[in-house]
Amino acid sequence: MRRVTWMLAIVMCVALVAAGCGTRNAEQVVKDLDHVIGKLDSYQGSGTMTLQTGQQAQEYSVDVSYQNPHYYRIALTNEAKDITQIVLRNDEGVFVLTPHLNKMFRFQSDWPENSGQVYLYQSLVQSIVMDNERQFAEEKDAYVFDVAANYQNGLLARQKIWLNKKDYAPKQVQVADENNNVMVSVKFTQFEFGKKFDKDSFDMQRNMTSWNLQTMPTSVKAADAGKLGAVNGATTPSGTKGTETGKETPAAKPTGAAATGTPSTGSTAQGTTGAQHQQQGTPTDKATAAAAQSFGIVEPSYVPQGVKKQELKEVKLGEEKAILFRYSGTYNYTLVESMPQAKTVTSLNGTILDLGYTIGVVTGEEKGLRTLTWTYDGMDYRLSTGDLSPTEMIRIAQSVQGQVGK
User: Fold this and answer.
1) Cα–Cα distance list, 306 to 56, 262, 303, 391 (Å)
2) Which of 92, 186, 214, 266 is a Cys-bridge partner for 173, taking CB atoms 3.0 to 4.6 Å apart?
């Protein structure tokens, strides 16, 4: 009898130990994640992002750095085109940098607190913690959460997030539309908590001059960065403004035709970034053809239902040639494309809009004329509208991705 009692005691002890060392349920993991975020000091991660939002899948290398309390650096690189764009936040504000073009947007914003990003750890954890209807599963070396997607693109409905069992580092993210089609996926190949960064890792000047060094941002030396030369019109290393070449001022409130999203010849043109330039183009076939030969027309593959293209003509943005598309119907908007030769530094008031393959900046009034500006493959795009929703603006912008100029 005593032997049986001892056997039962041993079995119970083993069961208790197994339970203590066993798998964790969703509530326990969520509680742990809340604790991790509360003590998060820094991290650095890298991987590959695949977008299925265009006519064909596009892959981008992603490198993400964070330092408490509000320093961020996200580099998106299109390996096929050898193009890198950097989103930077430091004490001086938020910067969207296109280093190989010496192009910079600078503005004040609380980004990314006001918008989720699929490659930011805080955004992923918040989506898990905030979704009370979250679904939970367990794999060999990962916890998997299926939760609602909370991104600027309203077409993205749900996402699956894989977290490493050992330290809750992200392994993979898949974001799907309402039909469960995966539109965005991120696979992290490396993720490190408690990363130590150089003092100037989040400095604008350094990122503009050292963007193409593989060891950027944690181990490149200042001397190496200096060899690449200073940026025309860049700010000083502390983030304060220097001489700004091509500085543009915030857009004035539009009136007349511009306020309705309908351009008129000789009037103030839509689709400018932080300023409205006079467009004085003659819509002749020869002029349009000449402009097309200079940089190639990229026509969006997506047009909202009930909308038709009404006009295609050459216009002027200052001294630069540009092509203007005008659409009308259910929505009214214009798209201006140009390939500027001058390198510019632009200070403006606006908000960041995540286009997936790049970052856009929205300026204008929330219930008035708004302009979405972005740069891709050396081209500047300006989408101006008074009635398109942010989701429709994103879809139009994404539809030029991977297109070949005609």
Assistant:
1) 25, 17, 8, 16
2) 186
**Range of 308's domain?**
257-398
- Return d(Cα 188, Cα 171) in angstroms, integer: 5
- Cα 370 to the center of its chain, rounded Å: 18
Q: Which amino acid is at 60?
A: Y
The residues pairing with 186 across neighbouring beta strands, listed in sequence order, are 49, 173
Tokens for 288? 């349009």
Same domain assignment for residues 165 and 283: no
Would 217 be classed as within a structural domain? no
Specify the DSSP class assigned to residue 226.
H
Cα 175 from Cα 264, distance rounded (Å) = 41
Q: Among 252-266, 305-319, 342-356, which range has the highest average pLDDT?
A: 305-319
Q: Does residue 166 lie in a domain region?
A: yes
> How many other CB atoms are found less than 10 A from the CB of residue 39?
8
The answer to whether the CB of 184 falls within 8 A of the CB of 118 is yes
pLDDT at 294 over 60: no
pLDDT in tens, 237-278: 333 333 333 344 333 333 333 333 333 333 333 333 333 333
C-beta separation of 74 from 87 below 8 A: yes
- Give a yes or no: residue 210 inside a domain: no
Residue 198 lies in a domain: no
